[in-house]
Every structure is written in C-alpha cells, then in structure tokens.
C-alpha cells in the first residue's frame, strides 16, 4: 500500500523535515514517521526538535526506527546507510533507500554563523574576495546539510507557530504544513499531509 500511495501522488517531496515543537518528543511516534517516509519513497528525512533531544539520544531513536522498520517493512528494501548530522553515528544500516539526519538548533543559526566566520577567514587569507559570497558559496560552507538537498516539505508538529530554528537558510522555498501533534499520529494523517503538499502550486516567489 505504501509504495502505491507514493506513486499515486502527483509529486513526492525529495527531502522532508519532521519538526517537533512539543516539549516531550516521542521516539516511537517519530520512528513511525521516519519509516513511513521510507516506505512511500522519500529519499531524505531530517528530524528536529528545538531542545536537541533526538540528536542527543540518536541511538535510542535509531533503535526504535530499526524495530519499527522490521515490524512494518520487513526486508522489503535494499540496504542504505543512515547518516547523522553530527557525524558521530555513521555506518548503521537500515533496510530502505533513504538517508536520515538528526538535527538540533546548533545546525541552524549557529551553522550560518560558523559558515560566515569560515568565509571571513578565507577572505583574510586572501583565498577569497568578498564578492565571491553568493547563494552557492554559502550553501557549500554550511555543514549541517552537506550532501542534502533543501527540504521540499516540513511537517511541523505542535501548537507553536514557528519552526523554532530549523534550518532557517534552507527553507526559503519550503512548503510548511502544521499538524496538531506527532503523538499518536496515524498514517492517514501523515499521508493526508503528503497529499496536501502534492496539490500545492508552488510559485517560487512569483
């Protein structure tokens, strides 16, 4: 059913950000969302909460994802490596063709500040000039999403009308859909959000 659902959508996001603004994140519910993203064919998934709980406890999240993946998907996909934004947990293998990053606020504004500092050092060392700074240059200097495309879709969970620091540079053109909570979320709610995204006409600022 999941593969059929993914194929049935007029467009499928390449990169989905899952942003939790609630105070007590649920590992089980977040794992379900990640596995559903895998199942419908989404290539890149970012998980974020504003307190950095998932990132600090990424092993626990990974264990829950592996557990639910085996229960829901079995061995129905080829293997891939899960990459973490802080690079301290590489080489773990799941059974699907997606890539996961777990992010925290330090991967947002702080990463932009670090990129700006690095560029200023390059200018001071005369390896670059100030006129070299453009969108592509800044993209290359940012480390938090190295190798990841910008998110096409962000699913924001919770009552706060803010993404609370989630990749502020990368979501300039991102469709953001708010859902009341990630707690006890159903697949139907998740797929309804994907269906809403597929029906959106994105004008890219025009």
Structure write-up:
This protein is of the alpha/beta class. Helix 2 (27-40) packs across helix 4. The chain is globular. It is 37% helix and 16% strand. The chain folds into 2 domains: 1-104 and 147-199, Undecaprenyl pyrophosphate synthetase (3-Layer(aba) Sandwich), CATH 3.40.1180; 109-143, no CATH class. The strands form 2 sheets. A 5-stranded parallel beta sheet has the order 5-2-1-6-7. Strands 3-4 form a two-stranded antiparallel sheet. It has 7 helices and 7 strands, in the order αβαβααβββααββα. The longest helix has 16 residues, at 109-124. Helix 2 (27-40) links the parallel strand 1 and strand 2.
CATH fold annotation of the largest domain: Undecaprenyl pyrophosphate synthetase
CATH class label of the largest domain? Alpha Beta
Rounded to an integer in angstroms, the radius of gyration calculated over CA atoms is: 18 Å
The number of distinct helices, counting runs of at least 4 residues, comes to: 7
Overall structural domain count: 2
Helix content: 25-40%
Shape: globular
Architecture (CATH level 2) name of the largest domain: 3-Layer(aba) Sandwich
